[in-house]
Amino acid sequence: MQYTSASVEQLVEEFSQLPGIGKKTALRLALYILKMPRERVASFSAALTNVKEKVRYCSICSNITENDPCIICSNPKRNRFVICVVEEPNDVLALEKTNEYSGLYHVLGGALSPLDNVGPEDLKVKELLARINDSLEEIILAMNPNVEGETTTMYLSRLLKPMGMKISRIARGLPIGSDLEFADEATLSRALEGRVAL
Amino acid sequence: MIVSTDAIVLRSMKYRDTSKIVTLYSEKFGKISVLAKGARAAKNKFGASLEPMTHSSVVIYKKERRELYLLSQSEIVQPFFRTRGEPEKLAIGLAVIELVHLVMHDEEENRHMFALLNDALHALEIAKQRAFNVLLAFELKLVRHLGFAPYFESCSRCGAHVLEDDEVRFVHVILARGSVLCSKCIVQHDGAGIRLSKGALRALVSFASAPMEEVAERPIDSRGQNEILALLQTYMQYHVAGARTLRSLSLLNVL
Fold this sequence. Notes:
Strand content of chain A: 5-15%
Shape of chain B: elongated
Distance between the termini of chain B: 44 Å
Order of helices and strands of chain A: HHHEEEHEHEHEH
CATH architecture of the largest domain in chain B: Up-down Bundle
Largest sheet of chain A: 4 strands, parallel
Structural class of chain B: alpha+beta
Number of helices of chain A: 7
Number of domains of chain B: 2
Helix content of chain B: 25-40%
CATH superfamily of the largest domain in chain B: Recombination protein O, C-terminal domain
Helix content of chain A: 25-40%
Order of helices and strands of chain B: EEEEEHHHHEEEEHHH
Strand order of the largest sheet of chain A: 4-3-5-6
Radius of gyration of chain B: 20 Å
Shape of chain A: globular
Strand content of chain B: 25-35%
Low-confidence stretches of chain B: none
CATH architecture of the largest domain in chain A: 3-Layer(aba) Sandwich
Oligomer: heterodimer
Structural class of chain A: alpha/beta
Number of strands of chain B: 9
CATH class of the largest domain in chain A: Alpha Beta
């Protein structure tokens, strides 16, 4: 594509590097930026720079943060005897929204996936092991309910069980508001497996 | 055109916020990729039917000259629960589908291949011991299916029946010819072959003729299994474009 401006061309090129953005969408975004007020463009540009300059990984839980340790790890009110292990920072946000969990987190940075060349050495497993001490009572494994998540759960439970603390996993089964009759057999079997006494 | 077919899920990858692009090995169309809109949302109509290794019945909107079709419905036919729950079986099952993903071309209908894949996953599900045999037998039968069947029963030089000849203690597999030379003839052969013990050769020949659900019962030790795996992977990489060492097997070391 020929552009009449090298700057627009560069911006289109940069946008099209983002996931899910093709050349046409990149051009649409670039032309929108061109129409935006100067202050909003400056604010947008500053946000992009700040995210790279200020955001880092928490040295304890590997979650994204601006202050090390992160606000969860440094909060004295959190239950320090329980760690919930998740795949990505998004999962911490999802669990925090529940207001049901008051322990600490550990972000692995992904899940085991040999097809994508992701092995245990690519995840923050060593960092998790370094956090284990005698006062720790429980580790909750909260991986996604897919093959990669199950594989990671299997791997971590084998690794952590000999260390003596309680190892649990989040329940799998029917989403609230759905109908039993439309659930597939895999989901229903998991729901039956994870049934609780009343 | 709306079409329905049975399919086995080979891979799935995240697409946009809530969707997935899923690669299937289907009975009617071979290897195809489909877009499953909303498949990652908590309430989605596909449930667990798009997890790798699952045998599902799918309905797709198929358009000519499109590489990606739209998935309309998907229901589980066989979830292969036991395979998912046991670390060794899980690694082997993932290796089986990885191999199919690597070597099969897109959109080439091959019902025998679908049946072979389905049989292998069933055999793995019911295997009570030596589940690894299923992968070895699957690789061997796949090579035969692709037209590169090796012939291992007699020496290609002197014609000796290597399994019956007590003097033959090992053979050398000549990759290019897909044949073997007995331990006596290899000294006159100019090119090197891959050495295979007689025990491993016996197991390999037995895998070739055995129905898939019986291969796990065939006796072989782990050393023999490793010999056969190394041979088949090298043989496949020599003859089949796209073949490489199976990454899923690395799970056997960590699980």
